[in-house]
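Action item from last meeting closed. Structure (437 res):
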């Protein structure tokens, strides 16, 4: 427009100049318009793209990094979290931290994992993606919000179940009248019932009760590992049936395959012994590991499960064969052959002259040394009138050291314990210490 005003101003000064300028400008204007039209697709395309980019840049919502505590106060709707069943069964719990971005309307648009157990992260993301927030306001206008969300997965402690009568052990026989079990074992079976109860309690396994646990250690043995062992568990099942046993053994098979690599060998089988019907499962050893078997029967409102392991198939079968000796009632011994039980004497009450007079040192198991296992094995033992050690039971300590400790203590010799001037059989505690140097 300024150019037109200039031309007309000149025309007022000199009409001839106006005509001359007008005449000279026409070719230039026409050429300029022609060039503009020839490039118009490119110019228009560029102009459209540029204006669109500029528009988007101008209209894109601002994003604000918000403290998680502040962001949590803006949540108006949460979706329930589904605990993964596999994680629940495996006892996996913990916290998952997610980074999220919400839109100006308060919807969760983006979710990313910051930390947490991979077994739980997907469940956390699935829930948080459905959450709804109040729009975050910045200078009175809604803005995108970036923040972190923590999702806690916590397993509720199962209700405490009263244990069944745990039974007792006397004269080489486990006795549990509640279940109608009298279970004799030879002296080569060394009990570790209390130690196994402590181990399961430490691992948080409170739904199964250890009735009896034992390892087979032949007398005068120089081996440092038991050739077989078993644990007898009682699990509460209202109206327990053999079908419950079948499902329990299938669950045991899945757990052994996951934890130990043992695979179920063949199908579950049934057998009858000691007046009860059992389901039995056999397991192949994994990579040179132990042979295993599990047997289960239903008595009253409980499932009784024997978990057996051994260094060979024969040792497992030898452990299984101990079930054949179970009876419903204890045989009544002749009165004249029944010996009085040993007297319980605490270790602190043993006077110096009653202490051990021959002490064979234990041999440190090579496997335990390699794995840096050390500690104290606490045992209960019967010391006879002659000062010999028998009926050893492992009470506490690393189970990897138990066989070595038992082998050593069996060779110890004590002075006879006197009561009223007469030697008597006693039961007391014995300790064997293992320390790496």
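Sequence:
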């Amino acid at each position: 427009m300024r150019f037109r005003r200039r031309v007309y101003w000149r025309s007022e000064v000199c009409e001839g100049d106006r005509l001359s300028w007008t005449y000279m400008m026409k070719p230039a204007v026409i050429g300029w318009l022609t060039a503009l039209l020839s490039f118009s697709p490119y110019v228009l395309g560029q102009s459209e793209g540029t204006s669109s980019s500029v528009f988007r840049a101008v209209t894109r919502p601002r994003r604000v990094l918000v403290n998680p505590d502040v962001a949590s106060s803006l949540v108006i709707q949460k979706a329930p979290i589904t605990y993964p069943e596999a994680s629940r069964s495996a006892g996996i719990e913990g916290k998952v931290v997610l980074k999220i971005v919400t839109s100006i309307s308060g919807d969760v648009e983006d979710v990313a994992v910051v930390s947490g157990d991979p077994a739980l992260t997907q469940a956390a993301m699935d829930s948080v993606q459905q959450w709804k927030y109040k729009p975050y306001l910045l200078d009175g206008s809604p803005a995108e919000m970036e923040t972190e969300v923590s999702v806690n997965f916590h397993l509720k402690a199962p209700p405490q179940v009263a244990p069944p009568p745990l039974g007792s052990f006397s004269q080489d026989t486990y006795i549990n009248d509640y279940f109608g079990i009298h279970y004799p074992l030879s002296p080569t079976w060394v009990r570790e019932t209390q130690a196994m109860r402590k181990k399961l309690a430490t691992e948080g396994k409170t739904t199964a009760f250890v009735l009896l646990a034992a390892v087979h250690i032949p007398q005068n043995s120089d081996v440092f590992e038991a050739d077989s062992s078993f644990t007898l568990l009682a699990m509460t099942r209202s109206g327990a049936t053999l079908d419950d046993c079948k499902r329990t053994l299938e669950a045991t098979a899945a757990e052994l395959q996951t934890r130990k690599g043992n695979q179920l060998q063949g199908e579950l089988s049934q057998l009858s012994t000691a007046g009860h019907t059992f389901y039995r499962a056999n397991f192949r050893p994994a990579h040179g590991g132990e042979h295993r078997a599990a047997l289960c029967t239903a008595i009253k409102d409980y499932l009784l499960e024997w978990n057996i392991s051994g260094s060979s198939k024969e040792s497992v079968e030898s452990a299984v064969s101990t079930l054949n000796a179970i009876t419903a009632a204890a045989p009544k011994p002749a009165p004249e052959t029944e010996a009085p039980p040993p007297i319980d004497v605490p270790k602190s009450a043993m006077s110096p002259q009653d202490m051990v007079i021959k002490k064979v040192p234990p041999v440190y198991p090579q496997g335990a040394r390699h794995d840096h296992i050390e500690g104290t094995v606490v045992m209960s033992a019967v010391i006879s009138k002659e000062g010999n050690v028998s009926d050893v039971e492992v009470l506490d300590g690393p189970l990897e050291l138990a066989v070595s400790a038992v082998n050593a203590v069996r060779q110890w010799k004590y002075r006879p314990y006197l009561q009223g001037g007469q030697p008597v059989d006693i039961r007391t505690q014995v300790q064997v210490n293992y320390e790496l140097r």
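Note appended to the action item: Residues 1-30, 35-57 have pLDDT under 50 and may be disordered.
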